[in-house]
Amino acid sequence: MPFELKGKTALVTGATAGIGRAVASKLAALGAAVVVHGRDAERGSAVVDEIGAAGGTARFIAADLADPGAVHELSEKAGPVDVLVNNAAVFRFAPMSEATAGAFDLHMAVNVRAPMLLVAAFAPPMAERGSGAVINITTGAVSTPARGGGVYVASKVALDYLTRVWADELGSAGVRVNAVAAGPTRTRGMQARGAGLADTLGKATTALRRAADPREIAEVVAFLASPRASYVTGAIVEARGGTPAYP
Question: Is 231 a catalytic residue?
Answer without folding.
Answer: no
